[in-house]
Design brief:
heterodimer; A: seven-stranded parallel sheet; six-stranded parallel sheet; 13 strands; about 15% strand; globular; B: alpha/beta; Rossmann fold; 2 domains; seven-stranded parallel sheet
Chain lengths: ~400, ~400
């Protein structure tokens, strides 16, 4: 087999966050791949994770103010992504949370998409997004709603061009099913827990840490502790909701604001339990806490159901779920938590399974398997006896989905 | 059964129109529809001098010469055709014909040459070859193609059954519409070509001289092999560039009549074909003359040529890279092999017009039968009807 010419496409390269950590691992698997993106505004010192590769960008790169305002060009991104000429590649991997999966490929090219989520603001999170961006009313709001309406149609149409989907959790797999009606294979993202070392001596406080934006529900957690003045909570993080949260905090709640990594890790190690109330697509912090040997009290929806092994559901539980995003539900969960003993070693063991090595192994296995299938298809020659092209196509309906090792 | 046949536009008599001609032979009573009709009087015999029902584009100014410029209006135009009085609708589609609107109890079968070529994976090639790579006009085109893609996908639902011109196109249909299709290779007029076993010492290539045909690359390959002869038939915008590359061992004949082309096809040692085609008829015409084919191993050629080392009774050889170097290596390999002209001829006969008509009719009969059974079994649970 000749080596496959590979292209990797990422929505936009501006920061180094969760999706970019995934991209980094994919590039380790395909170091010779060419890299494409709608825009590239990475600083020279940040380009290490893309191996200092040259990035092929779109016309959006040249539009005025696109460095800071690239998000306002969202209406043009579908058109932009369709202008990338990838016809000379055999294998196209898209790393997509917005438009990357919409690239155009030919009949005999393989396009595999790793989906962080179908474009978040366009689907079920639209209302949350509009509210948090202050665009739930007014002319600008209506304009945004109209654009998102158009993007939904386009997003659905382009799902056809993807030969195989990978999702970053079963939860996202279900969102993929809902919006595209397509199967996907879950490959959890790489979680680098190496910095979060194991620590068994727990102290008498709870911890929560996150950006302070409404959907993280930090205010609800703080409220829950005002119902339990004898229990201590430490809050790390900053954001637009800081003021509101501070106003709710009683003397048993310590708000530390933004803290460097060392301080965060130190608190994660010593905390009795980590509290997480957001509905996330995946959610990395609960796994970092578990890597420190700290059990998690989490809202039982979204990615948390897959990253935390709930008490009563597993023989080696690593946390506890509450089923409602209310102060009352959280305080009840904490009361219950105090009666249960969690083994820090179980937490640690569970977390390290999400390692980058595991991600690379599962990712490569899936891609190799699908390439082999597609090549089998291409080898099969036409015969006149054949009834339909059905047998020539790989329909993903019959996949046997692999359970992750986790 | 009242039948309508719809074709994208009727202006020339090319490959797609040869298919239409056979469709009309199968359904001589059918009414014919098209976005525009500007056939010369002498060309109208292939549509059996039928009256063609056209759309509003026919009446737009300059539409005779510029009908392609009205592409953005074609989706709208095609949706205005009222086919409600027909039971069976057959669309012959390389652009918008498959987008007609039909009702629940009408049957729409689409014979697809390709999902609209300029809109999907060949967009970049098309923009380049039309000189539309930059500028305002380029961006308007790009935006319109973006809209056409959405429309093209949406209208795939209205097609009850897809037929594709090759498995390769079946895979493009799958990628663009996620729909299954049944391959029925187009009719090739093999009876016009006769078997000729006495080969002479030259290679032949013949095609329009446009970039994607890669004629320049074939000529390049022969500049590495001054002891081997190549004859090139055809004309086109790339003529100048190709002439400049030709050494003394390459003869460029330009445009030639059918008789001359056939004569060269019969005598050539092998026919060289370097394009990635949806189907590609010329390699089959060469084979009908008993001439083996050296072809680029991608797209339709993989289905029209029986590759050496891949299938029994081979009729040609593939190279897997579009480069002069790869062509050169293939020719070298070719000279060490021997192909049987009769195998070539026999293989080409499988693509005859008669075979096309038979397979097409059989497919339609089968689908009509399936549907009639389903209709009579309304009360049966779905799983049972599905197995029929």
């Amino acid at each position: 087999m000749i080596s496959l010419r590979t292209a990797i496409i990422h929505d936009w390269l501006v920061v180094y966050n969760g999706a970019e950590k995934v991209l980094e691992e994919i590039l380790k698997l395909y170091p010779d791949a060419d890299l494409f993106s709608t825009v590239d505004y990475l600083e020279p010192q940040d380009r290490k994770f893309i191996m200092n590769k040259k990035v092929h960008t779109t016309f959006i790169q040249k539009l005025p103010f696109s460095k800071t305002k690239y998000r306002t060009y969202l209406p043009f991104m579908p058109l932009a992504i369709e202008q990338l000429d990838l016809s000379s590649y055999d294998l196209i991997i898209s790393s997509s949370y917005a438009v990357a999966k919409g690239v155009i490929t030919g009949p005999d090219q393989i396009h595999i998409s790793y989906v962080h989520s179908p474009i978040r603001y366009a689907w079920d999170l639209q209302h949350q997004y509009l509210k948090e961006a202050g665009m739930d009313k007014g002319l600008k709001g209506y304009l945004t709603k109209f654009i998102l309406h158009k993007i939904r149609n386009w997003d659905y149409r382009t799902a056809n061009g993807v030969d195989f989907f990978m999702s970053n959790s079963d939860f996202i797999g279900r969102r993929i099913w809902k919006v595209y009606h397509r199967e996907s294979q879950t490959v959890y993202p790489p979680v680098d827990t190496s910095g979060f070392s194991f620590y068994e001596q727990k102290e008498d406080f709870y911890l929560t840490a996150s950006r302070m934006v409404p959907y993280k529900k930090i205010d609800t957690i703080v409220e829950a502790f005002s119902l339990m003045p004898n229990k201590k909570l430490v809050v790390i993080g900053d954001g637009p909701d800081m003021k509101k949260i501070k106003a709710k905090a009683g003397p048993n709640v310590m708000i530390m604001g933004y803290q460097p990594y060392q301080v965060l890790k130190d608190h994660m190690q010593r905390a009795k339990g980590f509290i997480f109330a957001a509905e996330e697509d995946f959610g990395i912090t609960p796994l970092e806490a578990q890597a420190c040997g700290t059990p998690v009290i989490a809202y039982g929806k979204g990615g948390s159901c897959e990253t935390v092994k709930g008490y009563g559901k597993s023989t080696k539980p690593t946390g506890l779920f509450f089923q409602e995003q209310t102060a009352k539900a959280i305080s009840e969960a904490i009361t219950k938590f105090e009666k249960i003993k969690f083994n820090p070693k179980d937490c640690r063991e569970h977390a390290i399974r999400f390692s980058p090595e595991r991600f690379r192994r599962e990712f490569k296995q899936f891609v190799d398997e699908k390439i082999a299938e597609k090549q089998d298809v291409l080898k099969t020659k036409a015969t006149y006896e054949r009834k339909s092209i059905r047998s020539f196509l790989i329909t993903d309906v019959q996949w046997k989905k692999r359970k992750s090792a986790i | 059964m009242k039948t309508a046949i719809i074709h994208d536009w009727l202006v020339v008599y090319n490959g797609a129109e040869k298919v239409l001609e056979e469709l009309l032979n199968i359904f001589p009573e059918a009414d014919l529809f098209s976005t525009v009709e500007f056939l010369n009087d002498r060309d109208r015999h292939f549509i059996q001098n039928k009256e063609v029902k056209t759309t509003f584009i026919q009446k737009l100014p300059f539409s005779k010469g510029k009908y392609r410029a009205y592409l953005p209006l074609m989706p709208l135009a095609i949706e205005q055709l009222d086919l409600s009085s027909y039971d069976l609708i057959i669309s012959s589609s390389h652009a918008v014909a498959k987008g007609i609107i039909t009702g629940p109890d009408q049957i729409h079968i689409s014979y697809v040459y390709s999902p609209i070529r300029y809109a999907w994976d060949l967009q970049h090639q098309y923009l380049k070859e039309s000189g539309l790579e930059r500028g305002v006009k380029s961006w308007i085109t790009r935006y319109l193609l973006h809209k056409v893609r959405n429309w093209d996908y949406r209208t795939a639902n209205g097609v009850d059954f897809f037929m594709s011109v090759s498995d390769f196109i079946g895979r493009r249909i799958w990628k663009a519409y996620r729909r299954e299709s049944h391959t029925i290779y187009p009719p090739v007029d093999v009876s016009a070509f006769m078997l000729h076993e006495q080969k002479e010492d030259f290679y032949l290539t013949a095609s329009r001289m446009v970039p994607y045909k890669k004629m320049d690359m074939i000529v390049d390959a022969f500049s590495y092999m001054p002891d081997k002869k190549l004859i090139v038939i055809g004309d086109g915008p790339d003529m100048k560039k190709i002439k400049a590359k030709a050494g003394s061992n390459v003869t460029i004949l330009g445009y030639q009549s059918f008789g001359v082309l056939r004569n060269h096809m019969q005598r050539a040692k092998a026919f060289i074909f370097a394009a990635e085609e949806d189907f590609g008829i010329t390699p089959l015409e060469a084979q009908a003359c008993g001439t083996p084919v050296i072809a680029y191993g991608k797209g339709g050629s993989l289905e029209t040529v029986r590759g050496f080392n891949e299938r029994s009774n081979p009729t040609g050889l593939f190279f897997y890279e579009q480069s002069a170097e790869a062509i050169k290596r293939a020719i070298k390999q070719f000279e060490d092999l021997s192909f049987n002209p009769r195998d070539c001829r026999e293989h080409s006969l499988l693509f005859s017009k008669e075979r096309f008509r038979r397979e097409f009719k059989q497919f339609i009969d089968e689908k009509l039968w399936e549907i009639s059974i389903k209709k009579n079994m309304n009360n049966v649970p779905l799983e049972v009807t599905k197995q029929v």
